[in-house]
Every structure is written in structure tokens, then in C-alpha cells.
Write a structure and sequence with these properties.
By secondary structure, the chain is of the alpha+beta class. The protein has helices at 2-9, 72-82, and strands at 14-16, 28-35, 38-46, 106-108, 111-114, 120-123, 129-131. The protein has one domain (10-129). The chain is built from two helices and seven strands; from the N terminus they run H-E-E-E-H-E-E-E-E.
Amino acid sequence: MDSIQSEIAKGRIKEIKTLPKNYYCSPIGLIPKLVDGKQTGWRTIFDLSSPEGHSVNDGIPKQYGSIVYETLNDAIRLVAQAGKGALMMKRHLKQYSARRKRQKRTQMVALSFILASNSILSNYKSLFPQTKSNVR
């Protein structure tokens, strides 16, 4: 609950009284966040594939709905091709978000969840904008 209160205090989540027209409600969970094997907090997990048939992911056109990751062998090959002195690193882009200049023409994804008290909390700072053409 401290994690939720922290998000409210930062203005990232707010309580809403009425639901938007194109409303999706997906389960949210928490798993331990580990650094060097020690828990430092909680990582929020958003199940954007639920509920089946009416989820955020269901609104994404099929041609954009799959990701193909490079393999470790691909990465090793690229480092070998680059030659002596080449480096390989991992970069975590915390707080990355895609924004459009003209938000009036887009509908934003809101992450929301219902607390045991039946309060609805929502995050209107979107993960990604959706055009009207790909929102049901």
C-alpha cells in the first residue's frame, strides 16, 4: 500500500469518480524488486492481456502485436564483428514514455485498478498514445 500512496503523492495516480468512455481495467500486481539479491522495493506488473477479448493488447493491430528479440548469439556475433575494444552493455530507460505533440487527436491509455474499498485509482500519464483508429 505504501507503493500506491507514493504514486498518489507524486501525482502519477489519482482517484476517479466516473469511468472514461473507452475504459479498460487490467489486473495489476507486485513482485519483489531485487538489487544484488536483496529486495529494495516492489516492481509493478501490469497484465495488459486481461480481460481476454477486451484488453489493452486486444486494441493493438496484429501487425504491431509481436516482438522478436535478438539472441545472445546475435549479440556475441556483433561484438566479434566490431573487433578488439568493443563493448556490450545493457541500458535501462527508466521513466521512458512515448508522447505525441498533438495529444488532442489521440486517446491516452489509463492504467487503473480498484482497491478493496471500491475506490478507482487511475494513471492518466500514458504508457503510449493510441490513435482513434486502433481503439475499440
